[in-house]
Specification:
Elements (H helix, E strand, L loop, with lengths): L3 H16 L2 H14 L24 E2 L5 E3 L4 H5 E6 L4 E6 L2 E7 L2 E2 L8 E4 L2 E4 L2 E3 L6 E2 L10 E8 L2 E7 L9 E3 L3 E3 L1 H8 L7 E5 L1
Parallel strand pairs: 3-15, 6-13, 12-14
Antiparallel strand pairs: 1-9, 2-8, 3-4, 4-5, 7-15, 8-11, 9-10, 11-12
Length: about 200
């Protein structure tokens, strides 16, 4: 029969040795991490300076209320966009054939729409917009400053630029934006279905 005091002393020493082992410490750390509640991280709000030095008022926030799309089907792969700043119109081509065109609003002289050759970089359904002046986050929808769709084609130190819907219909056909390309909501929804990430975008004077 084993002496109770001796057995208890040996058991204490065994437990103490086990606690000092790297395996025990690793297991304890794992259990502690699993027991710690995970808090959802807030979506970072990009701060991008516009050409005029202010934050870009038309930069979307991709949030749980928005759906980011990445697609390039055989049909959209053949499509390309040509934006004419002078005509204030975007033209959709399939190869060399003109498919459709839509009236737009472009950037002002102070906050111009960039010219050159670009590709679609990001597409968002129901983009969420935050006012750079008040910090208020606005719900997505047709009355949002970004309308129902966001099609980004350029990003630089001057900001992020894209096609998007707008409730400010009187600005269509004018140089009125902070550099982005405003469209009627029904037009940007139609355009959204005919392009994909990687679609060519040519912006000409």
């Amino acid at each position: 029969m084993v002496n109770a005091k001796v057995f208890g002393s040996h058991l204490f020493l065994l437990v103490l040795a086990a606690m000092r082992s790297p395996l025990f410490l690793l297991s304890a750390t794992f259990l502690l991490a699993c027991a710690t509640p995970a808090f959802a991280q807030s979506v970072p709000i990009p701060e991008v300076a516009s050409a005029a030095g202010a934050s870009n008022a038309e930069l979307p926030i991709v949030s749980p209320g928005a759906e980011s799309v990445s697609r390039l089907s055989p049909v959209t792969a053949e499509n390309r966009l040509v934006l004419s700043l002078e005509a204030r119109r975007v033209y959709l081509y399939r190869g060399e054939m003109l498919v459709s065109s839509y009236p737009v609003a472009v950037g002002t002289d102070e906050t111009p729409t960039p010219q050159g050759q670009f590709t679609v970089q990001q597409m968002v359904v129901n983009p969420v917009w935050q006012s750079p002046w008040t910090g208020e986050v606005h719900e997505p929808g047709p009355d949002s400053a970004l309308g129902l769709r966001w099609i980004e084609f350029a990003a630089s130190d001057a900001g992020a630029f894209g096609f998007h819907g707008t409730p400010t219909l009187e600005s269509i056909g004018k140089a009125a934006s902070n550099g982005c390309v405003r469209m009627r909501n029904e037009d940007v929804v139609a355009l959204f279905e005919q392009v994909g990430v990687g679609t060519s975008v040519t912006v000409q004077p």
